[in-house]
Fold each of these.
Amino acid sequence: MSLPRISKGGVLLATGALALGMLLNPAPAQAHNNGVALTPPMGWSSWNIFGCDIDQWKIMDIADAIVEGGLRDAGYIYVNVDDCWQAQERLPNGELTWDKKRFPDGIPALAKYMHDRGLKLGIYGNPGTQSCAVWAGNYTGKMGSLGHEYQDARTFARWGVDYLKYDDCWSKVEGVNAKEAFTKMSRALKATGRPIVYSIHNMPQLPIRDWYPEVANMWRTTPDIFDNWYSVAGIALATLPVAHHSRPGAWNDPDMLEIGNENLNREEATSHMALWAMMAAPLIMGNDIRKMSKTDYWILANPLAIRVDQDRLGKAAHIVKHGSQMVLARPLTNGEWAVSFTNFSAERARVTVTLQELGLQGSWRFREAFHSRSGVTDKGLSATVNPHDSYLYVLTPHK
Ligand code: GLA
């Protein structure tokens, strides 16, 4: 079956939006400057796999698995508790607090657990008065930070939190000015003096507002990801046209990874990783690390893909060739380049790109991340790519 939702029409739409997006929405000069997320944050979040079904033991088990399996050393250091950690009500002094049944030892103890293991703790909050899970009907807490921004930021800092996902579902309903609410929390976090990654989700996600990079380290570019190829591919196609907004300290966030969950095959999981690496996206795993397959581990821990994602130049990929087979390229530090082929169609396809099409000259050594190809070329790259699969190359100047 071909991909009706993202084949030609979608690609055309995406590339048209690229030109229009760059014209109408040039990247602002100033990036949020809080000293963190100079490369895209890497870690894990509870939401994609567990939803509201979380407790401290599960989170600690996942942290152990991240360390023991080598994923911490591969760069995945943030362990993020998503929605549903909160108690139903604030304390009498107005402070936020945790659900005593599921987090009996409290968030500060969880933060210490992470810090003792070389990890960092992320937590979840909202700019309105309620969390997003209330909206989805599976949680009853009323714990948004509206009107409590400075108090909550101080609380998070005191607890030892290193990352805040600030997620909007209610501001439109509650008549809250999103820009003001997100900005206020940004200032409140900065005022604590603790370096805390600030990840925001405003709706609608696009266009990217000028103020996102000024107040936040990362911002969502699309609605929620789901565990299927159409969602992964559609999110990539919507995010590539706004690639130019990403830079060190301030990143497009095409949402958390679904690699290792049920529905992506090996090729699709490979493309998920390759595309997110090319987009310089935060790599926040969303699977049960305790039970992952060797293949999923191998994809998530792929050193070359991580190297591309984490390149300190922080330039997200641009589209070199459009169509059902897409070629992307991004410059890396030290004169290297990353180039990817993704086959969005349901047929095997030969993909070729010349050095001229890439804007490169001379002779290049290349290494491929997922298919063990390497060599030297002064002409270009080509590969026969399976349906939904990707090739991810790093090119190094030769001699
Ligand atoms: C929104 C976010 C998700 C997740 C849920 C939690 O849908 O986009 O990533 O945080 O809220 O309720």
Amino acid sequence: MTLRAVVSGVGHYLPRRVVENAEFEESLETSDEWIRARSGIERRHFAGEGETTATMAAAAARAALEMAGKEAGDVDAIIVATSTADLTFPSAATMVQSELGLRTGFAFDIQAVCAGFVFALANANALILSGQVKRVLVIGAETFSRIMDWTDRSTCVLFGDGAGALLLEAQEGDGTAADRGILSTDLNSDGTHRDLLYVDGGVSTGTTGYLRMQGNQVFRHAVEKLAATADTAMTRAGVTAADIDWVVPHQANIRIIQGTAKKLGVSMDNVVVTVQDHGNTSAASIPLALSVGHARGQIKQGDLIVTEAIGGGLAWGAVVLRW
Ligand code: UT7
């Protein structure tokens, strides 16, 4: 028997305010046409009053618990992947713990920017496989609208806010690729690329700062690194692209999503795409896509999924799991 971290619930929260591309035409030299053609984005949600990284994360967590038929008290740990925690500290995860009325177990954040959810899944998996926890909420939640420079058209049209959550539970498997749960992980980072995507504020500046990105440089790294990490994870899981039911990629740019699928040899019919409706929600994009893909009836129990992401650092990685 082999211990596996199996998805028993999924949920998400999107802010009430929806902003169409056309809204940016009023304040910037940009167009709906440019944004759609270069990124595939049509609209995004922006957090408003009362909507914070922690409140959205808690709402997504509640939805995942409800689907699993579990209470907050059944959870041993909470991990939030985020680069936009509401305060420098405490962690968004402890705020979620408090929002859920939980005073037991432990909670912490993981910060690997857009790859954060993949890093969080890998860490949650390790906690489960080592026997330290039985049930863990893994959440991706972001309010990137609060680190946007609204005068920078090359970044502010690309990002959005939201949260998604999975409940992972320890279950016994056979140790084969037929098992439900996380089958393999692959994590990477290369800090020499720090200047390609960063926020120009923090404790060293005494400001929150704004996101800065050399988008076309990040783009150059993306397809190659995403396909390589997905390939590594699939090899570790003992599966091939032909076995994959769904690629659930980080939703940054439709051209990166298409290029990666092509390199992997997976049809776009087997890719969950939400970038048109959410924009790039950084660490929230994969759990949002998993939740929306499940709600659409695309992702079903037993499906083999590869999920991959790249972001600031650079940091990138992939996870293969059977739903
Ligand atoms: O999630 C974390 C990882 N991040 C990513 O994966 C993002 C990766 N990068 C991208 O998605 C794309 O590089 C972008 C969508 C950011 C940009 O697309 P691109 O095809 O790489 O365009 P570019 O940056 O090379 O810019 C092309 C032109 C430039 O004008 P010139 O220099 O050719 O005259 C930009 O100034 O488009 C201009 N431009 C815009 N024009 C209208 C940049 N932003 C805009 C805009 N509206 N919003």
Amino acid sequence: MLHSINPHTLKEVYSVEEFSKDDINKAIDKADDCFKSWRKRSFAERSTLLLAAAKELKQNKSEYALDITLEMGKPISQSISEVEKCAWVCEYYAEKAEQHLANKPIPTDAKESYVSYEPLGAVLAVMPWNYPFWQVFRFAAPALMAGNVGLLKHASNVMKSAANIEKVFQRAGFPEGCFSNLPISSGKVEDIIKNKKIKAVTLTGSKPAGSSVASIAGSEIKKSVLELGGSNALVVFADCNMEETIKTCVQARFQNTGQSCIAGKRLLLHTSIAEEFTNKFVKVVGELKSGDPMDSDTYIGPMARVDLAEELEQQLKQSVEQGAKILLGGNRKDAHFEPTVVDNVTTDMTIFKEETFGPLIGITVFETKEEAVNLVNQSDFGLGVSLFAENIEMVKELIPQFEDGAVFVNELVKSDPRLPFGGTKISGYGRELSMDGIQEFVNKKTVYIR
Ligand code: NAP
């Protein structure tokens, strides 16, 4: 059995029997059967269904958001926003898929030559709990519009949300087998990837999970996309708009109770403004409302599981032993972790080197632009970086020097259906969203007609 425990009340809210090997194989067969007809449907037909899914999400957002909050503790207002964002990505691909996948003519000495973009078949998605709806929809919307079919192995602690996502597609009228939820633990993933009917796999999650899934896919010569962890820096230059920057940095680090791959986890401040910025930043963080995630004005809920909060506590403890200084917070009760700000962080500390997946931020100071770039790039992760400055020309000169998959200026790193999303280094490879995302799971077929 797989169980969802409400991290606020610590009571079980859902449980489901795991699929047996036989159940899994039946689901894969059904997906493969569905693919045979689904791939032949026109973009217009697929688009009508995806728009129906968007409508379903919007109409019943409260129902879906409630289960997200009960299962993993996300403050309810943020759960509702998450469901709304899923409707957006469905609408985006319903409108844009045909354009993104139109044949690309390439003039050669042939009478006609072009690239066509054709679906691969059944794609397995291994997904995390932190945005239980969004992570799945940003895979599913483009994959289904491209003519693929999807199978979901969701995180074990959000199986109700996984079932709800399947329900969204059913209610929207998608054919049976087009999108299926597999209630299974991670031990069953290997056999699924090795099944001949599974053509590719995408994983959003941690490095160990990504490394394992990619190795198996590699040994089978199957395509994989990995969206892994991050330790984004928020780089604040002396000429920033301080009030705006503080607001943005607080949101960048503390939304979703700090449990976001693209959260700004390392705050890098220019020495000339460090003291003033830190004092004001600590004050704003101190005013964030923590508590019951079912309250509409709660901003910081519990972390998704007690063990995750314990892990964060351990990272904080180690960093303090290494010389970091707590300015705010630092305490934990069960899964609730106080919003915490830590100063005097240096590059050899746990909080700088590892991903901290909760409401904890470390401050490091720098003197020169070169030093700031080095600090950003010293991380093994490469998801994104935010730069805050009024001198945009200075910032633009720096952009090519960052090794990350995204640079945002005067804004938090965020995912947007219109822009590609993905990392470098141990943050993974491949891209989701935009045209790049829909072209990940297709056969880019070269056609040459003499
Ligand atoms: P996780 O432990 O890696 O779990 C993610 C998914 O992988 C779950 O479905 C999990 O199943 C499964 N899994 C775990 N180990 C596996 C294995 N050896 N083989 C196959 N599947 C396996 O990650 P998490 O702790 O839930 O999520 C947090 C991590 O995800 C963070 O590092 C975060 O930065 C990253 N993340 C990245 C992005 C991005 O877009 N780059 C977005 C969100 C989160 P079980 O639950 O059954 O173990």
Amino acid sequence: MLEQLESTYTQALAELETITHSDALHDWERRYLGKKGAVTLALRATGQLPKDERAAFGKRANEIKNALADAFTGREEMIRQHELAQSLEEGEIDVTLPGRRVPTGGLHPATQTLRRIYAIWAEMGFQVYRSRDVEDDDTNFTLLNIPPHHPARDMWDTFHTTTPGVILRTHTSPGQIRAMHDYGENGTAPIRVILPGMCYRYEQLSARSEIQFNQVEGLAVGRHIHMTDLKGTIAEFARRMFGAEKRVRFRGSYFPFTEPSIEVDVECMICGGDGCPVCKYTGWVEIAGAGMVHPVVLQNGGYDPTEWSGFAFGMGPERMAMNVNGIKDIRYFWQNDLRFLEQF
Ligand code: DAH
């Protein structure tokens, strides 16, 4: 039996030398080292030998088993290397291909525009004040000089909550009242803030109007603030935002919380004033509503309007982004369509 085992061993080694494929290799493993393999069976038969031969046979059979297992591992590694080299050569793996890109997110176009607006106002000394999205009717309307049955309330179709008097703010202007109370030290301290944030209107969705959109409100309160300060400040903002060469113009307007009220236009960002679809061939694009804070509003903020004055403005970042980039439909902003978002 020992002789037979030795010859199996020699044969197994010889065969192994000729094997070049992993299929054949595993077949070899099964035939010699598997459950019913020759070496395994020989080992199992040890018990049938005469007692005095068992120990020597068993020892040798184990040696052979280990030697074949080592030889197998060595051959397996060799074949693996060989097969890898071959598949590389045959081009199954193209090592010259660039790696797969991990997609990274980007800032939303509204966020990008907001951040530019913050940066410019910050350079001009305006701090960011975050007012609330859920407002009360009083602060959103009444304290801003829009009493309950004032026709101007029609300008702001409102989302009401189930709690009477609690609404979603229709504009960022109520933040003016809150900022005056929080920063004004009972009408004794000057204020220079911008108030950015989401506004909500119960409106028919269209290319021009969304039910939610951002506004950036501005408020300056001091002892000697005049209309010229408003005009100079907002013109400077427009030049920093849209280009130093841009001209700015002011038109008279009406808002209940400012007196006088104006609207601010800047030369069209697309055509530079020659006329194009973005500016509807007027050469001008509206960028803000503004005005001198109404005495009633100053009073509601805790200031004495005979001593204090101020200016305010409100601008729409999505509108600005639309004008600058020629975006035709405001609904793109909150649809989360990557084909739109990836362009910014
Ligand atoms: N709150 C106005 C709106 O939503 C925008 C606005 C106009 C804000 C004039 C102001 C302002 O502060 O002075 O249409």
